[in-house]
Amino acid sequence: MAEDNPDDVLLTRRAFAKNGFGNRIVAVSDGEECLEQLLPAHGGPGLAPALVLLDINLPKISGLEVLGRLRADARTWLLPVIVLTTSRERRDILNCYLGGANSFVCKPVSFADFVPMVGTLASYWLTVNEPCPDPGTL
User: Fold this and answer.
1) Which of 5, 81, 122, 137 has the fewest other C-beta atoms within 10 Å?
2) What is the pTM of this model?
3) C-alpha span between 97 and 83 (Å, rounded)
4) What SUPFAM superfamilies has UniProt attached to this entry (predicted)?
5) Rounded to whole angstroms, how far apart are CA atoms 18 and 7?
């Protein structure tokens, strides 16, 4: 999870837990740290999460630039990236999809609305969706 607001990280962790998902959530607070975790400079493999929750308004390196770099690198080009943000700007939505986002989700304002949204999101991406196989294993 790439999110600069610690309260949103805490709420997301709580929402995952309330929905029965015990998945480990690795949280980073800026785009630079996100890229360091997923695309280490040494060229080797980074973290291999089931999905990335990406805010577009990140410090240091924007979420859109992070998305572009993830899609440009063979280590992460197939990694599911869900943009989870407060923005409802049509331009942001379009730019995220053009950049290769798998989904764009607007964060609800209230925790009461956030919990079921996270439950739906986690249920789909972690249990219903069939992850893409590694092309090197075919």
Assistant:
1) 137
2) 0.92
3) 9
4) CheY-like
5) 16
Strands 52-54 and 81-85, by their bridges, are parallel
pLDDT tens sequence across 71-106: 999 999 999 999 999 999 999 999 999 999 999 999
Domain annotation for the chain: domains and CATH numbers: 6-127 (3.40.50.2300)
Token code pair at residue 80:
């599911």
Please tell me the distance from the alpha carbon of residue 27 to that of residue 16, in angstroms, as a whole number: 13
Please state, in angstroms and rounded to a whole number, the distance separating the CA atoms of residues 59 and 135.
Answer: 33
